[in-house]
Amino acid sequence: MGVVVPFEEARDPAESLKPLLEIVAEDMEAVNRIILDKAVSDVELIPKLAHHLIDSGGKRLRPMLTIAAAKLCGYRDEGHIRLAAAVEFMHTATLLHDDVVDESDYRRGKKSARLVWGNQASVLVGDFLLGQAFRMMVEVGSLSALKILSGAAAVIAEGEVMQLAAAKNTSTTEDEYLNIINAKTAALFSAAAEVGAAIAKRPMEEQAALKSYGRNLGIAFQLVDDALDYSGDSARLGKSVGDDFREGKITLPVILCFRRGSDDERAFWNRALGKGEIADGDLEHAIKLMKKHSAIEATLDRARHYGTIAQDALAIFRPDRYTRALTDVIGFCISRAN
Hints:
mainly alpha, Farnesyl Diphosphate Synthase, two-stranded antiparallel sheet, globular
């Protein structure tokens, strides 16, 4: 796996995020104003449903990456603010669509939009937010930014279909799963960071570096989420522990546990996740198997590995407050598991 940075020794997750918050604070106020403005519609249900998720307490990490990357690259205009808002709308739309596909009842600790307003409304409002995101991209007038973000939108959709095909499929391999999260999660992280360099018209090697940073940060972020679903607490997750298990999701801890287990243990995973026949006590048994086969620790080791790659990607930039803040974001993502 190479040299692994000991992110587990990072300070409190909230402390790790402070340098980034300080750098982007003023611009994020402008981003938030645009988000509120662009979520408006004469169709009453649209702003009501959109704000249900927009106002639910997400950290807005992805748009903050766009702001920080643009500042790192010396961008001086205001286009990055609209692009950051577009990134957040893309993310929100993805969450609305995700909850429909996954039949999720809760998101960030509250009832999901699909549970309150139904699947059709959730999908259509997600489409509205995607449309607003593309409007903002066009308003900025950067063809390279439009190319990056529109490409990410297509890849994310592919990732959703890939995940749907892999749902309940216990034969999914680690490589196949990494392909899914590379598309479904890491693509938007990657685009959010890369677009900051693109709008600043920086050299291709700098754009590629931020693209790599975002991609590997996104993979690390998702792997930590996967581990937390079997080892975290509800308050930190914003959802119930074991939601992935109840929804039949094949995540990396499951894949590792399935591969390392006995025939009887694999039969358990096939029944519980493959067939969706979950009985009382099955989640507790699944967690015991995770511990037995060190699946959580192995997942977090891989997350640290991708975090190290993300950190190395920033090495071409001169060390300053922006690179330090972006490095601390890696620590934040990893240390959520502590």
